[in-house]
Amino acid sequence: MDCLFCKIIAGEIPSEKLYEDELVYVFKDINPEAPVHFLVIPKEHINSTDELDEAHKELVGHVFLVAKKVAHDEGLTNGYRIVNNCKEDGGQTVNHLHFHVLGGRSMQWPPG
Ligand code: AMP
Ligand code: ZN
């Protein structure tokens, strides 16, 4: 499959890995929007949140617990933001489900 993030998981494209287990892969965003900005992705290729179903319930819960763990490992003791951009109107540019974790500065609301 011609997917950038599947290639990163396979090691065919280099990345700055922060964590990996049997279900997820975590790496630094190449274009950080905050002092800390990493992505949590399932190893299973899923296009977006819109393709999630009941079978993915445990996986998504695991994604959030890993996001919290790595956020703490990266020193985000004062909070952080988890973002998922879904499909065109959500601003998704890579069609492999991913959750951004941003921190190290105060976030603004609402997003653009
Ligand atoms: P989204 O716009 O939500 O689809 O987010 C895609 C994210 O992937 C962006 O924040 C990009 O900076 C990031 N990205 C794209 N290519 C790479 C790469 N090779 N390594 C790490 N992050 C990447
Ligand atoms: Zn993929």
Automatic annotation (TrEMBL):
It comes from Peptoniphilus ovalis. A motif (Histidine triad motif) lies at residues 96-100. Residues 4-112 form the HIT domain. It comes from the Bacteria. The lineage of its organism: Bacteria, Bacillati, Bacillota, Tissierellia, Tissierellales. Pfam families: HIT. PANTHER family: HISTIDINE TRIAD HIT PROTEIN (PTHR23089). This is Histidine triad nucleotide-binding protein.
